[in-house]
Amino acid sequence: MANKIAVHCYSEAPDGGWGWFVVLGSFLSHAFIIGSYKSFGVYFPYLQEAFGQDAAATAWVSSIMGAVLLFGSLPVGALCNVFGCRAVVMTGSLLATTGLLSSMSVTSLPVMYLTAGFITGLGFSFMYTPCITMVGRYFKRRLALANGIAMSGSGAGSFALAPVFQLLIDNYGWRGSLCIVAGVALQGCVIGAFLRPIQLKADIHLKKATHIPSREANDGLIARLCGALDLSLFKMPYFTIFNIIMMFLSIGFSITFIHLVKYARTVGLEPQQAAFLSSVVGIADCVARLGYGWFSNLRLYPLLRGFVVCSVCCGLSLVFLPFAQTYSSMVVCCLFIGVFVGCLNTKITVFLVEFCGVERLASAVGIAFGVRGFSILFGPPLAGYLYDVTGNYNVSFYFAGGTGLCSSLMTSALEAHRTRNVQRQKSDVLGSEKSNEIPQSNVTADEIDFGDSKDLLIIRETSV
């Protein structure tokens, strides 16, 4: 019988302690995984030249990588519930390393879809989702700040890796550079070591209520994974609507990350200048996640309302990008895109915790990131097709910006509905307290402090 891993049990998230090492691990995970995906556009023109394919066909490499990264979140969330986050991350590190090393000797684009796209993307997914989940389990009151620090790694990685990838390609060729990237991917085993298991009191209550299978269960692996993947989350209307919103936003994000470098080179920029634009988006993303994570912790405004503003600004920035024809104007546009992308991504886990509860966070993150895979899969190839048809990237970026603006309309409707719900429930509770007719059993399990509800704006699913 395998030795059991010691698990620390807490009545609630400790909001610190070893949690800061978990934040460090998540930061490093974001820096490499998301940084690599966002910077992989540097390889785009070289792959297109090496395999002699058009933009639409070549874009499928990065699209499959990003889509599998997110699609994989569905089974990964269940795997975390069954085997633990640490083991899943280390397994993903080995998978990603295998995929990148295999891509060095590929001679056809369809095989590249398998190695760099599917295998590497699956490894990235195994490394990515558990790190997000663990931050949400170690933090409660400081979750926005901790999540902002952890997710700022993606911006830092994008800033550092885009020029590094270009430098490696210049010196070793695109095939040789993948060997070095694979060596970095192997360090995911070290990242996994930071993810010390933690058990919360809410986990025990959830296990009793839902009978989530344990490791010692005699059921088959597939049955255990299906039981651990909590699809009942789709019964929560706000969770479902929020996933649709993120799908629209992800279309715009993915088109920018994959086609930005190629667009800059079609305008006439040098390869290093074009690659540096990805770095500009990355550093703006990093600073925004840190700053917005701290600023939102002040609770000066409803979080969903801020999400609406950032969605509008991000969409407009993408729409205006084709009008930037000089290097300096493109840098300015990329700064704005990076800032608002960072602000939007910082709040995703915060919303999922509030919608679904920390005890169901692994499944919520898995599902939320999994459904966004459709956007990542089809967005960049569609933008590449529009480029092949029109001969320029104008329509592609108009489309990317339009999806961001559409998401802002849906978020506005969600925010308005949630505001009315909060106000109505606050009024009901205050009225009941005045008449002293409300029994203790009517208070929700989370004992919502309605004095702060106008700041949080989002409350756990109760009456809806």
UniProtKB/TrEMBL annotation:
Q: Please cite one Gene Ontology biological process associated with this protein.
A: creatine transmembrane transport
Q: How does it sit in the membrane?
A: Multi-pass membrane protein
Write out the transmembrane intervals: 18-37, 57-80, 87-105, 111-131, 143-168, 238-261, 273-292, 304-323, 329-353, 365-383
According to UniProt, the reaction catalysed is: creatine(in) = creatine(out); guanidinoacetate(in) = guanidinoacetate(out)
Keyword RNA-binding recorded: no
Keywords, A to Z? Cell membrane, Membrane, Transmembrane, Transmembrane helix
Q: Which PROSITE patterns match?
A: MFS
Residues of the Major facilitator superfamily (MFS) profile domain? 19-419
The Gene Ontology CC terms held by the record are: basolateral plasma membrane
* Compartment(s) where it occurs, according to its Swiss-Prot or TrEMBL record: Basolateral cell membrane
MF terms from GO for this chain are:
transmembrane transporter activity
InterPro entries reported for this sequence: MFS, MFS_dom, MFS_trans_sf, Proton-linked_MCT
Pfam families, per this entry? MFS_1
Q: What does this protein do?
A: Functions as a transporter for creatine and as well for its precursor guanidinoacetate. Transport of creatine and GAA is independent of resting membrane potential and extracellular Na(+), Cl(-), or pH. Contributes to the process of creatine biosynthesis and distribution.
PANTHER family recorded for this chain?
A: MONOCARBOXYLATE TRANSPORTER, MONOCARBOXYLATE TRANSPORTER 12
UniProt similarity note: Belongs to the major facilitator superfamily. Monocarboxylate porter (TC 2.A.1.13) family.
Protein name (database record): SLC16A12 protein
Q: What is the lineage of its organism?
A: Eukaryota, Metazoa, Chordata, Cephalochordata, Leptocardii
